[in-house]
Write a structure and sequence with these properties.
The complex is a heterodimer. By secondary structure, chain A is an alpha+beta fold. Chain A is about 55% helix and about 15% strand. In chain A, the strands form three sheets. In chain A, strands 1, 2, 3, 4, 5, 6, 7, 8, 9 and 10 form a ten-stranded mixed sheet that branches. In chain A, helix 12 crosses helix 14. By secondary structure, chain B is mainly α. A two-stranded antiparallel sheet of chain B has the order 1-2. The chains are: A alpha+beta, B mainly alpha. At the A-B interface, helix 2 and helix 4 of A face helix 2 and helix 3 of B.
Chain lengths: ~900, ~100
Amino acid sequence: MSPVTHHRLAHALVNSVARLVPPPQRHAWRQEWHGELASLDRLPVPMRRPVRRALGAFADAFWLRQRSIADFAWIDDVRMGMRQLVQHSSFAVSAIAILSLGLAATITMFSVTDQVLLRALPYRDADRIVTVWETRAPSDEPLEVSPGNLIDWRERSKSFDFLAGVEPWAFDVVGDPRPEVWFAAKVTAGFFETFGVTPLLGRFFTPDEYRKGKDQVVVIGESFWRKRFAADPAIVGHVVRTDNGPITIVGVVPAAFEPRLLPTGSGYRDVWQPKAFESYEPNSRGGGYWAAVGRLRAGVTLQSAAAEMSAVSQQLAHEYPRSNQKTGARVMPLREFLVGNVRLAVLLLAGAVLLVLIIACVNVANLLLARGSARDREIAVRVALGARRSRIIQQLLLESALIAGAGAIAACVLSSAALAAVVRLGPPTVPWLETLHLDARAAAFAALMTVAVALAAGALPAYRVARAGLVNAGRNTTTSDASQHRLRAVLVISEVALALILVTGAGLLIRSFVRLLNVDPGFQRDRVLVTQVFAWDYNPTPQHLKTFFDTTIDRLRALPAVQDVGIVTAMPFIESNINIQGAFSIVGRPEVPEQEARRTHFNVATPGYFTAMRIPLKAGRFLDDRDGPDSARVAVISESMARRYWPADDDPIGDRITFRFSGSQKEVEVVGVVAALRHETLGGAARDEMFIPFAQNPSGSMTFVIRSAGDASALLEPTRSAIWAINPSQTIYRAATLDELVQNTVSPRRFALAIVVGFAAVALLLAVAGVYGVLTAIMTSRMREVGLRVALGANRWDIVRLVVGRGLLLTALGLVVGLGGALSVGQLLQRFLFGVTPADPLTTMSAAGVMLLAALAACYAPARRAACSDPIAVLRTE
Amino acid sequence: VRLTYPTALVLHALLQGYHHGFDIMDATGLPSGTVYPILRRLDAEGCVRSQWERDGEARKEQRPPRRYYELTSHGRRIAAEAAGRYRALQDVDRAPERAGKTS
């Protein structure tokens, strides 16, 4: 052959090989090889060897082809996966919906956990900040600190850089046109230093300002500054007129500084005033009203601080045995104080969420399995054509990842809606709840969960299908059907078992909640308006007080729709400033040692209080108009007090009681016994209480109790006007309906209940969907058998029994498996239960009953389909 | 970069100033079926970059333009590393100088 022929051959070779090259590169590739071949002309003929050289084009083209396949295989997979999902959109939609529910719940709980429990406190070295509380042996429940003890703690302890106290406080700002209450807090030196905050504007307090007379200064919070003063930059130095004289604003503290040390019942306190101790306070150790907060000195551990504080407490117990004999101190990290009591609830909810997510994964795995069996043929064909097993598994996992990804996107949307709902409806006692939102960390968590879910839901079906695909390629798939049904049955049984745990937990909480709402608090809470006033300032003498309240009551009583009006000092379910407990003696009974003294709460009320509250009379009579200032001194006691101190056969009516009240010794005759009232929570015990007539013991800190014929909140404005008509400067502290006040105390419980019931409902739904899916699959593959049976004379009822029996068997097995968990879930919930035992068989049985009923409903459609099928048609299609 | 002996040879040839597929083939003695996939791989890994010879050059010799390969800075580092690993590469230097050193 001539060199020219060689050349032509080489070029032809390149041209034909070019077909192997992926189209995008083909043209350039051909040019390159032709260019090289053409360049050979420069060489002497024996060195050209064009054909031999052109043979390398094969290797080159193959290499490029291989590589492009490797590069684009996954895109093919994605495209194919998408196509699969679109083609089977009902499968895709249900799988995505199920996963998005599970993931949304998980992301929401993650956000709550992350942003409430694990949130970084906005203070310098926040883990060195501790709160210190009094304890009363034998309990170690933290109690507020008495001023005497706080002062001694500060002087004697060495564990702290700073140890400061904070006390709730309020003052009236004389305003225009109406007076206004500023809820404030008094703080001792070192308070701001403990938290390590710096003022946004102005300054904090000078040492001098913690002295009496110099303390007419305040620091306000940023949000109060923005809201009340429209962020006035010249606020520092601004003077407000108050009932205690002028007060100067000296600084603004950043909004992030929210120590939340005081009860939030009256809303957040955003005004800080320096505390100048009253002369009696260093000796006051009886009752606490301070919260103490300290910064641990460098190198001091929590344990050593606690040890020192308990040593100091022992010294104090030794020096003041009367008041401090049982008093201890408890050092608690600030974070523990802030979130300690919500931690258990959040962790339990996180557990519930995990169950829901597992059930969702199982459900999707189940759906994928069902899809897999429909695809056995396709996979068998692919295997027969030489598809590698790894490639098929990869394809299947990719499909589950696509579902999980779509589910995650839907879940993020759902979850940010859920978080908004939590912000709106969540209990106000949980710190920082109002700032919840879907953040980057939650999104990262969602991504992580998506991968985990894709693997969890996709692994089993992928493995099974890939294996079955190899084993059964081209063969009859009856055996794989049977093994698959077994596998799916196991999944459904586990779903039912997990769901039973959640449904039981929800059942226990529902029963507790119903029990709680049905507690008789001793009064009727509907249609009552509660309004609190402090009338001392304008009514210095008992006579003034009596006149002010008597005229106000008359005026209120004259309002339309008002049925009864009364006043009381210690009103249930509202933070009352006058809440006096003390010892009393019963005349004619032997004295008891001081530690075992008879104690009760003292309360001052008008006769109208009992009628307005609809408190039932148990014996004797109520206080009434006979009990004037000059008549015999009388009292009415609560039933629980009567029970505790008067044995069954001993009637308290007519007995005389002596006690100290308002600085003087009193002696009263018991004239009646009324139902005992619950004061703080519906779940708590009813109070031992003694009511004495307002007419005989006028006081300035009173709460109006106004019963309306209709909507109580409609009385709010008329009530304010009536009070201001008597004294336009009188401040009105808190006003709310009694129903609101009671509902507030159960709102955290109601909220947690709503969440758990929601989770349980989702779990129930998913489990039932699982039962339905499996039954449908079994029935589809046994249509032939059913057809035969019908053809051989089985009646439809037998067929229905077959299907329903199968469904109930699966459910029952699940219930048996879940029983152990269901009975022990109560132990975990114990702290949230009320009036229900943790292992409550009735609740567990009801939960199981609900699930069986739901399963029965799930059996309906498959049973109907099987029973109504035409045997001839079924047999023909095979 | 996977540094097989043939890869090292190709890198070395590039370092020595051979820029076209067939020239590298002749310089290294490797068959074209080996040289080309290596060039493709080095290209994908950023060790070489390629461009077309300028039109005028090719027209002067009345032939289609050739593809021109040269080492990137990364490729030069890898080539130096390869030279250290395979002493025998020096043989390539002694291989007879062939035509095709284009600029």
